[in-house]
Predict the 3D structure of the following.
Amino acid sequence: MFPGMRACVQRVTNASVETGGEIVGSIGAGLLVLLGVSNQDSEAQADYLAHKIAGLRIFDDSDGKMNRSIKEVGGDLLVVSQFTLYGNAKKGFRPSYIEAAPPAEAERLYDCFVAKMRSYGIAVETGIFRAMMRVHLVNDGPVTILLDTDK
């Protein structure tokens, strides 16, 4: 199986990301994806995860059951890079990030993931890679799904 690109997917009524006091990405109803790239990932993991998220049925149908995807409801997507998803705190109290991809490779695969999501016809907003960001969201449900291409 794949080495393990990770995503924390949150269904939101709205979300935004700011850096330096300025909003750099904002969406209405849709999904906020915090995306972590490991040092073992490739374009195959970015494609797989994009496909999975595009088809993930976590929006309500007419009967109130989670049975519709972001594509079906016409929702927006906000993608924020999140290397801390690879924080390993098994030993001690300070997480190790040794499993996270080096910045240049992580950015390349992050961009690959974003491009793949856009290829599905989904409107995508992003944060700024490697910037200190503040993420604001209203989690709808709340619905939060953790995805890992290794699991």
Remarks:
- Strands lie at 6-19, 22-27, 30-36, 59-60, 66-68, 76-81, 124-126, 134-148.
- The first helix runs from residue 43 to 55.
- DSSP finds three helices and eight strands in the chain.
